[in-house]
Amino acid sequence: MTRPLDGITVVSIEHAIAAPFCTRQLADLGARVVKIERPGSGDFARAYDSRTKGLASHFVWVNRSKESLTLDLKQPEAMQVLADLLARADVLVQNLAPGAAERMGLGYAQLSEKHPRLVVCDISGYGNDGPYRDKKAYDLLIQSEAGLLSVTGTPEEPSKAGISIADIAAGMYAYSSILAALLQRQRTGRGSHVDVAMLEALGEWMGFPMYYAYEGAEPPPRSGAAHATIYPYGPFAAGDGKTVMLGLQNEREWKIFCDKVLLQPGLATDPRFESNARRNEHRQALQQIILQVFGQLTAGQVMERLEAAQIANAHVNGVGDLWRHPQLLARGRVAEVESPAGPIAALLPPGVHSGFDYRMDAIPAVGEHTEAILRELGRDAKAVARLRGSGAC
After folding, report:
1. The CATH number, out of the four listed (3.40.50.2000, 3.40.50.10540, 3.40.50.720, 3.20.20.140), of the domain defined by the range 9-206+333-390
2. CB 137 within 8 A of CB 125
3. What is the pTM assigned to this prediction?
């Protein structure tokens, strides 16, 4: 089957998570992604840990289906290789330090004169201008700047998200923005510049609490794993020590919950709990009632009552449980990819398409494709040996 991005070439000067996550998704759709890495060590994310058959968990996740080309971009010969590669490319993605791409001659204004059809995507913490442009930006720092920590955690202590959510948000918006730029190029014949800031990406995801606290209103409280403003909505312990996650969305479900799950239909009209606002106000009292009922049941029995009442519920799984999740297995969403350490399990990208299959190729070793790409760009054996001898690749 033809994939949507077959024939598209992406060159990425990338490291860590945001840019690699963006380009891996482009590769999923068929794009050829040439990943530029440092000679020898490669992307520093390769050394984050060794938890996946000796490979780094972050790197395994976001780097399948790519070609690794090692170049020391401080050397003129290496920059010439990159220039030759960009002449054939459709997209350049980079998440270098702010201003570094321009100093290397890789800014959009510089490149678009030579390559008017090229889409250039810059990913940074705060964007290409403004007073924060040169400020260092890591995922946790952006979570803090974007206000995520103010709404995540317990009433006593804020907590970061357990995953690199700011990097992921930036990677997602870079991915969708590049797709939009390629669609626009089909109409106009010209490439364009995409400037993605981690702060703005995560800021978009903070829309609900920002509007909830609009014009100085009280912000949503930190409430652990429970919903900050809807109740009951969150984790509740059962009598066997296990936890059940449940969520109510409206007054009809509240009445059914009281009748079919708590077996206390009169509770639905208790003045303390007659609306979500009242339940939220008196959540501690309601929590004690729920825990008293659930404490007499196993988690399985609680979920049976919730299912019978058609109240939304979920298991509280650990991360390892996801590989064995019966729904993912039933839908065939767990596949394998090759790697320098052998076959590794991988989740297929979200979205089942009738018209194509996702590309699920190997995770590359550092510089695995260097010689092949250099030969493709016209370097003969002597030129390749000279580049290697000088440390340029």
Report:
1. 3.40.50.10540
2. yes
3. 0.92
